[in-house]
Amino acid sequence: MSTQYASRQKQRIIIFDTTLRDGEQSPGASLSITEKLEIARQLAKLGVDIIEAGFPVSSPAQFEATKLVAEQVAGPTIAGLARANEKDIESAGKAVAPAKKKRIHTFIATSPIHMKYKLKKTSDEVLKMAVEAVTYAKTFTDDVEFSPEDACRSEMSFLIEVLTAVTEAGATTLNIPDTVGYILPYEYGRMIARLKAEVPGIDNCIISTHCHNDLGMAVANSLAGVRNGARQVECTVNGLGERAGNAALEEIVMAIQTRADFFGKGTENELTTNINTKEIHRTSQLVSRLTGFVVQPNKAIVGVNAFAHEAGVHVDGVLKERSTYEIMMPETIGLSGSRMVLGRHTGRHGFTNRCKKLGYKLTEEELERTYQRFLQVADKKKEVFDEDVAAIIDDEVRMVEHTFELEYMRVLIETGESPTAIIKIKSKEGIKEAQAEGDGPVDAAYEAIRVATGYSPKLESYSIRAITSGKEALGETTVKIRSDGRTFAGRGISTDIIEASAKAYVDAINRMVARKDAGEEPQIKAEL
Ligand code: KIV
Ligand code: ZN
Question: Residue 2: is its pLDDT beyond 90?
Fold first, then answer.
């Protein structure tokens, strides 16, 4: 093997990241020059071996971005893509020139369908162009990669002929693209094995995979290639790329690491990568944020649910022994731990555990009360967050006696009419119902509460905030009421902001009444 990577460590899988080139070709994923630079810097931190920074001839911005990355990003080799013609190669050569380690990646299609319809060239012409491209690229850098585009739909004999010729011309990496994501893992593995066996001089080159995901096989195909002798994998962060994307970098790396047993662990053939896996999550987030491509929740490795557990049985299992339901440690990719999602599937054990983690020491009875309330909230919300749990506990396990309880409320809002609230308040005396109108729904509810409780303290302040995000987030209302020169605060939470508002007001009245019961008469006269 002739390249710097191969000579250093025979079994290292070279990670060739093409997020900034093939990934950026995803419809709608265009990045500014500074965004590309930011991603390239993060890729260097991640430890990728090669960054394909762009396709320089395709636009002045692509040229600039590639050049800037070559100038400013130290560590990885910087590659520029070029079709098999002088103009492209010259542009790529100039763009990567400032890099300490530089590569030109040149390509030409070899499949009958591409040669006939796209290139309108014979196979002899394509063969000649491929050799000339590699020869010319070698005048800019010794590190030249050649790709027979649409290799997996090319005729094997022609593919071998082209690869043999470019190897003789000095190509150091032979990339085998499944351009249209057509091949299946077994076939791809066999193809790599055959090329390795039949292309003279191929052992002096690195064989590379470049698999697209049209059939969802990109990662499986790449790994099949690796198993059969490929030592470079071309991939992108979050699997970005043309159409269904490329092989996802994070999946390739974590598969090689997690299934080291399959990839020769403990033998001289053990495969490794140079990736600092702790940077995986951060890199994924950055790419997602800058491209605007949201990572699907169930995406392997980097999806928000990849290390999340909600079902009672799973949470219970993971709390007892993580490996029951986790094959990788979330910390390995830079997360602080697994995410135990509280939701309607969470059992008592998971809920109790979370309360303890949040520092609450609850009695059995308090726990039961809080858990029942949690179940009600979980029924309305997809996910219950720690802040929700804290708010529920605060709301349920309180010192103040509940003189009044909001039993029922209904608010009618009609265009052109004043809102009307119907409220039922429960107390020792039974249930009292009241109806009132107001300037707005909260105002109407508060008026009805005053009538039902018989207390009319002055409302000093009112504020509302979402405790958690999302359409069904919990809203928390805080009110302050004033009576006899003293202020009483009340808090209410609910997924319904008017209900939260009503609860807060009743809560504040309860606190005021508690003081009255302690011997002080509150002001009863309406002051609003
Ligand atoms: O998919 C492909 O064939 C490519 C080549 C340019 C390598 O991206
Ligand atoms: Zn591609």
Answer: no
pLDDT for residue 453: 96
Residue nearest to atom 3 of ligand 1 (CA): 179
Rounded distance, CA 303 to CA 239, Å?
12
Is the beta carbon of 83 within 6 A of some atom in ligand 1? no
Ligand 1 proximity of 105 Cβ (cutoff 6 Å) = no
Averaged over 455-469, what is the pLDDT? 84
Per-residue model confidence as pLDDT tens digits over 53-109: 999 999 999 999 999 999 999 999 999 999 999 999 999 999 999 999 999 999 999
149 CA to centre of ligand 1 in angstroms: 6
Distance 177 CA to ligand 1 centre (A): 6
Residue 25 Cβ contacting ligand 1 at under 6 Å? no
Closest CA to 342 of 387, 294, 289: 387
Which atom of ligand 1 approaches the CA of 21 most closely? 8
209 ligand 1 Cβ < 6 A: no
Q: Which-ligand-closest: CA of 84?
A: 1
Q: Is there a contact between 293 and 238 (Cβ–Cβ < 8 Å)? A: yes
Tell me which of 8 and 234 has the higher pLDDT. Answer: 234
DSSP class of residue 369 equals: H
Atom 2 in ligand 1: which residue has the minimum CA distance? 179
**Which strand (E) or helix (H) includes residue 16?**
strand 14-17
Q: Please, which residues have CB less than 5 A from ligand 2, an ion?
A: 22
Q: Which pLDDT score, from 0 to 100, does residue 528 have?
A: 25
How many angstroms does the Cα of residue 87 sit away from the middle of ligand 2? 21
Instruction: State yes or no: pLDDT of 344 exceeds 50.
Output: yes
Distance between CA 349 and CA 485 in Å, rounded? Answer: 46
Give long-range contacts, CB 8 A cutoff, 24+ apart: 303-308. 304/339, 306/330, 307/335, 307/337, 307/338, 307/339, 308/338, 308/339, 308/340, 308/341
Helix (H) or strand (E) holding 405: strand 405-412
Residue 210 · residue 234 · CB < 8 Å: yes
Comparing C-alpha atoms, which of 55, 145, 67, 146 is closest to residue 99? 67
34-67: pLDDT as tens digits: 999 999 999 999 999 999 999 999 999 999 999 9
Q: What is the pTM of this model?
A: 0.73
Residue 276: its pLDDT value, please?
98
Ligand 1 neighbourhood includes 107 CB (under 6 angstroms): yes
Neighbouring residues of 347: CB distance < 8 A, sequence distance ≥ 6: 312, 313, 315, 316
Quick count: other Cβ atoms within 10 Å of Cβ 98? 15
Query: How do residues 324-343 score in pLDDT, each as one tens digit?
Result: 888 999 999 999 887 778 88
Could you list the beta-strand ranges (E) of 86-229.
102-109, 144-149, 173-178, 206-211
- The SS3 assignment for 225 reads helix
